[in-house]
Amino acid sequence: MNYLIYFLLIILVPIWAQVKVKRTYSKYSKVPVSTGINGAQAARKILDDNGLYHVQVVETRGFLSDHYNPMTKTVHLSPHNYHDHSIAGAAVAAHEVGHAIQDAENYAFLRFRHALVPVANIGSNMSWIFILIGMFANLSGAMLLGIVLMAFGVLFQVVTLPVEFNASSRAMDQIVSSGIIRNDEEREARKVLNAAAMTYVAATAVAVLELVRLVLVYTGMQNDD
Length: 225
Fold this sequence. Notes:
Elements: H1 2-28, H2 39-49, E1 56-59, E2 67-69, E3 74-77, H3 79-83, H4 87-104, H5 108-136, H6 140-177, H7 186-224
Parallel strand pairs: 1-3
Antiparallel strand pairs: 2-3
């Protein structure tokens, strides 16, 4: 029964977070921003206000596929956020520019996350191979190696949290100080950013729980030996 509750939690929590962000985004993507500018213009204004004239703003495919590419110094905005004159579009655009500002200022957690990318990718792709070998063949050494590899992926997700929260904090400061939104629109913009942040919190919580569960399984294998 405990395992059933556990697996329901790790399945339902991320789904709940995704539903929440989609509903919140859908609601505020229909609310026009008072200044009448679109996401691309909002991003460009914040970048220019911070002296980041070299960072480009481009349209990318997909729904909520917005991101900042530190390699090309480019802010990518999904079609709706690029073109729409909404509070949601302005908030998301400002969030991605927040990452560009972090990059320009050598924000420590962003640099740490970038350094973790290679080992986190290896860990995410290889960990379950060793974990399954360890579990089915009763090889605690293989199990331990899989757990260590998984831990790098979990660490990447944990480090992502301060990066995302800081980018959202910068976004709120920028869209208010630059006059992109009025003070009475701040609450709506914050709701969009908070809902998006919950997806990262949910994913990290699930990853940490799964890592803890596997550590307990490994401990049990050691005790049996």
